[in-house]
Queue: 4 jobs
Job 1
Amino acid sequence: MPTDPTHPHRLKLDQALDLVMSQRGQVVIPITAGDSSMIPHLRGGDAVLAIPPAGLPSCGDLVLFWQMDYWVVHRSLGPVVTRDGRSGLRTRGDGRNALDPLVVVDDVRARIVAVRRGGVWRTLDGTPARIYARLVAWHDLFWAAAGVVAGSVGLGRAVAAIDLALLRIAVPLVFPLIHGRIAAPPGSVAGEPV
């Protein structure tokens, strides 16, 4: 269940994010140590470059949103309307086989346009990167559905292992070829978040 948007902790974090993005147009956000929800694309110690969202995120976009009492960077799998009529975004962490709870569009705080891994910044923009992102989103949707079906017969863990294994094989080979290196963004020193 989402935290009340008027909760003081959330208000302070939202205001700080809004202030930095309004002054700089972007913000560098570190990925929390130990976070594995976006493996193999992101892991603890990496960082992302976030910009204000411009409308509804596209299928495949990495988005920063509020969930429970913290920010999350996960992949947008597209808009959805639930059976009870609620609308929002379907999201998933690439490293998890389950879909996230429905994300209210107003809770999306930023779109991720670049990632830093091992001190190297890479862009997520451009036609090849957009195609790659959409293919990963389709992968995430397919394997999440396969996980639900397989879970009903006791094979959910096996499907989750196959899902992650495919990403762990493909991402190190394909990601660097498609996502070009870029200079460290302004506001970071040697690629480290400020």
Note: Helices lie at 8-24, 127-151, 156-178.
Job 2
Amino acid sequence: MEENEQPKSQLEAFQELATQAPENVMVRYSLGLEYLKARRNTEAEGEFRAVLHLKPDYSAAYRELGKVLTALERFAEAKGIYEKGLDVACQKGDLQTKREIEVFLNRIAKGGD
């Protein structure tokens, strides 16, 4: 690192990794999480959709995409994504993600957060 160079943020580091390895599911998922933290929901949505394109049975990506869509107030779309994620989580035996998705689905059914 150069003397005046700032250390990379997590977001910048994952952006760089995603450029180098666009097919790496974990890198793309992590980049989506960083965008979500930064409230860059449109970019986060793109990353989580890319993850699901690469690995359609990644239940945690459905959970995170549902969060993004909820933040974007696209509730019907979020509900559909959560329901698909719930199916995937049940098929894989991913009980923690299943429980979390059920909580988010209940919030949408009650009209938001």
Note: The chain has one domain: 10-109.
Job 3
Amino acid sequence: MSVKDEDRIFTALAIRDTADHNSLVVATAEFRAETILLENGLDQAVTFQLQGSRNLTTWYDIGDTFNIAATTNDYQTVTDYFPFYRLVASCGISPTSGVLDVWILKARGI
């Protein structure tokens, strides 16, 4: 039997600069992160870097950065396991409108 869960890590984030923005941290516990669901309602593209940690002190970049175009919804598949995940989001050009919403979908027993 499979069990599914999700964590919302960016909630209506109105980015208005080009700084890095760290998401909330997701503790996977007995779950395995499977998919990152991204809803970019900003009027600029967003660059993301997935990071993982085993102890919340040291963070490791997982894979390459990926971009989501302005006003686009997309997803990324997670293949590496870490007990904790976060996402770093940044824009090359400061957005002037819109918000960013991101979820990490998790499952166990699959």
Note: Strands lie at 3-13, 21-22, 26-27, 32-40, 46-53, 60-68, 72-77, 84-90, 100-108.
Job 4
Amino acid sequence: MQWAIDGCLEWQRLGLAPPAAVRNATAAYLASEDAIANWLDDCCEHDKRTVCKRSTLFESWKAWAEKAGEHPGRQKDFFEALESRGFIPFTLHGGRMFRGLAIRASDPLL
């Protein structure tokens, strides 16, 4: 019984310590499940000098999400997700934009 009590106290003090292989596999799984990150990689250019209309970004996201079998969700949530990733919203001549990313030009050969 003392062994179980000691083990419980150690678990409470240190928590679970999964092996590196488990931590790495979990991180890889979570990264693959981040649909917005995947869209950013697939469809966007990242450059602090670029700007793009919010509506253009959402249209691209929505088309990508639907093709990938993801639920695109609300525009508000999408824009908040972009802000949380460090993209800066601003207004230019009455248009609502984001700084730091743009939709990648389509490859004419595709």
Note: The first strand starts at residue 44 and ends at 53.
